[in-house]
Structures
1.
Amino acid sequence: MAVEKMLMMNVIGRIEDVDSVLADIILSEKVELVSAQSQIEANNFVFKLKDENIDKAIDLNYITEFEKDNIYENELKRASELKEMLDIKSDYLKGLSKKKFNQINDNDRFNKIYDKVKNCYDKLNKNKLKLEEIDNIYKSFCKISNIDIDMEDLGNLNYFDFKFGILSKEDRIKLKKNYENILAVIFHTGTSDEGEVYLVLYPCNIEEEMGRILRSLNFKELMVPDEYTNTPKSVEDTLAETKINLEKDIVILEKDLQKHKETYSEDIGFIYNNLKIKERIEELKIYMSKSNKYFYLSGWIGIKDKDYIVDMLSQYKDLLIIFETEGGTTPPTRLKNLKIFKPFEMLVKMYGTPSYDELDPTPFLSLSYMFLFGAMFGDLGQGLVLILGGIFLARKNKMFGGLLSRLGFSSMIFGGLYGAVFGFEDIIPALLIRPFENINTVLAAAVFIGIILILISYIYGLINSAKRKDMEDGLFGKEGVAGLLFYITLLLLIGGKLINKTILSMWIGILIIIICIVAMVFKMPLTHLIKGKRPLHCEDISGYYIESVFSIIETLLSMLSGTVSFIRVGAFALTHVGLFIAFETIGEMIGTTSGNIIVLIIGNIIIIGLEGLIVFIQGLRLQYYELFSRYYKGEGREFKSVKINGGEII
């Protein structure tokens, strides 16, 4: 439940092993590469000089960058085509590539597979297009099959041209009204599902004008190609036979393609995987350097992965691995949390990734957020709905589905404490309290819970300051020791007044507050004084103190407003009950049992959807503004291991 410790790994190996080493690193998904050139220039490629390492040290003087090689692009494109042509899904194990990567690709075999599949696929598509074209022509001739005219005779007319087409009922009426104005002979030749079929004969020299007239009548021209010369009925029979033959050919080609898929799927999967890895290798070489004999690689790994990486790379002869805890740059952040807390990492990263020298806030956020959500949205039945919704959503978004399920579980726990089931409070007894019957207690408890959470956030802040070795903010900052004492003293003084009892003497309290204010105002010079640094101020003195005074006012206001802000937890617990009472009242006013049930169902849907979303946002607001602002910066960089682009591998 922390930020995982990282190691900088520097690797020197033989140039001929570079592709295999990178392939292993990619498939392990445990290394984040950084620029080896930067590491070398920063003198971080330090290793013990032994006889076997002399060449490696000498070659460091002749390093250059790798040039990207695009030789695999065409092959990868062809492999992708094969995947698409055979409809091969990404369902092969990565182990296929791990096992076979170092084997030599049989390019002749790949070319033969490609040619076979491509030839079959192209024939199939050509036949499908031909069938579609023939089918359209066939449908046209079916509509005019009762005409006993040879199509060749129509096509041989010297001074006339013709068109077959369909008119709707409305357009037929329009044609009849204007028939005497149209310089053409129009024959009704039949009826179809789309309308009435006509043959239009017109002089060749009015082709353009006739086209405009027919378009104005919404004349739907039938496709009747010139190459068909017999009677429409004869052409229809010929086309029907052609269709049957094409359909038979398509079935045979589809079977051949399926046979190719069964025969070559594994080979294509292997080839595609290897090419994807090789493409990724070429992309990642930009991070590496090389000399005449050796390659130089640098990257971050988790400290727990060290043995795995060493064992993985031990197969390579004359390979040198150097591990460092620092590496000259700030390590990336990889979170390590229990499964129950894992979905809440999403909320942490929305605010920012923890710095490497910062506590991971995920466990604290997880527990406190579940507590706050459950307190505001406590209901056994509605919580169960959230759990079921989370299980369903987890199929598409595992993190959000898991988050929703955990919030639903918290809602069910508080539902049992409140005695609420789908809004009803008379079904089961309350194990702790009924919010609507104890309003003052609920609101006071909410503020008390807020105080506890704020105090915990101060402790987190102190630990983070210690990890960063930040004395200025850790001792004298508004979120440091001075700020914590200031807050506790205020709580004791105000709390004593509220209960009419002296918890802390007023004079002692005022003295502590004054000391804390002085410490916060003079935090920079005090820190420099303790450390022996000079000058005591690093900026304009007057500007520094003006800013410090206003910062004290802002701190006081934020402490008070932040504490009172948690009263919304109790307010939403009451609103949750009140909203259901409103729907219950509306249901009773309808006067029928069925109407009442429908209103209550709709009410629960609205409460789960709308109020659930509002409570989710309010809980997040309390985390981000009232807690995170006191201890969490989130200025880190997330660890991103190298892998196949998009994780795509079949």
2.
Amino acid sequence: MSIASASTTVKFHEFPSGTIIHNYQPGTQVDGPIRSISWSKDGNWLALVPHSGLAEIVSVKDQLKLIHTIQGIEEPSCASFQNMTKRNIAVGTKSGQVLIYDIKARNVKKRFPRTTSAVTRVEFTAQDNHVVAACESGEAYLYSYATNNLSGTFKIPRSQTISALRTNSIKRNYVVAGSNEGVVAVWDIHGNKNKFFIGSHKAPVTAVAFSPVSSDLVVSTGLDRQFCFYDIGGNKCIGNIFVENSMTSVDFSPDGKFIVMASQKGKIYVYDSKNIQQPIHSFFGHTGTVEHLSFRKTEDYETSFNMSSENVKESNTTIDSQRNNDSFGLYMMPVSERGNNEPSQCSTDAVDSFMAAVGLDQNNTGESNKQDFSFKTSEGNKKFLMHKYTPTNPSKILQEKFHNESKTHLTSTPNYVNQEMCPPISPIVNLDPQSCPSHDKNLENLQELVRDTVKEELKIASEELKNDMKYYSTHNVAQTRQMCLDLLMSMVKEFIKVENNFNNLRADLVCDLPQNQGALFEENLMLKQKIAVLEEELSVLKNNEINKNNIS
């Protein structure tokens, strides 16, 4: 696994050691930092846009070499490969053009409506259905790849700029962006609305990235010397880490286990996603600011992530259904609350003490030899439904299929019907009265035969259904136990929450009550005595007043 970093040159590093494999300088001289880099689908090509000059495509498959310079597009400002193919590339220009360039034909294939200002970022959505272009004016333009039309425009709330832009590889309708005003926003391009935005940075946002394994997890870096994590579904910032230097670029490893960031001083930091408090490794990549970081793509990673993204339902499933205080493991716990002890990590594979205590360990999963039964969707992706199962006792129809083919029956089915497509039909006796002297007797025998046949086949079918249910209950026990564990954990958490609230309420009530239980009784007696004294004084005053009136 390797990673590309771009400053005034592009360097290719071994990961995680940071050893430099190649160093490439576009053009004939260094005019400034490289504007953008983008890997092809298979990771063999890298498209880059230098600070000035034409966009270039270099090959890193066997050895580093320039294979193509994109002619005919003046003043390019950014470029991005398609996700599903390496033939086409989107190019944005300083004049506000967004073009699709065909590498094989070496010409411009599509032209989208011009933007109002220079294009600074361009990205394809996960399935290449749309192209998103960010401009210096602070607007993001959404183009339909099929119709070449403008589908919508977006702006970051409380911002006039767009400094970073990324699309989601799992949820194809999500786009994240950051601004110089420190705001991070996520757009839902299907509904043309803001899904989430927050002003967590006190300086310009330099880079943003979606997690490749958790569709609702976003990380951002800024010039305020911190990087932040966000939960889109929870609509909140779930953690912020302060660092020594301002981070200028960020990227997730394809498996989501590592986060790589680069600083203004050219140093690259590697963080373990299970413990993001301190980097596990660091190395110097450039002498100046690292503008871009991007992990190299491979066919294996692409295939695995496309499969996993199809299995994620985009409407309130998987991650959304499991959202709680530890949905993202360590990410969901604020840094200030972690303390010095490393928190427990969320893992669907590991067996914790709680699972062992309730008897849901991996020793009882009942694994056996099984095959996968799958189908292909309209998009050509393979989905797995269940384990393929062959009944131990096939039905009577299947047992007698080939045996009945050798016999001659009077059936209502023509001889030309394909027996492979239609199951054999039970024999039917000719009921012609002329050919059957005892018509009533034959009819009774036929009815009895049909009843016996139906009963037997229903019995066999019920046995097969029982066998299927036993098979699925045995081979899917791991998933069932995991669901039961999640439900039990949720119930325990809710019980603890309710109990804590009850204890707090009881403590508040106890604080308001007097310490001495007889204090209320004593206080009541004292009040009665005071009332009696006041009544006596009032009667004396009244008598004195009456006497004065009589004397006068």
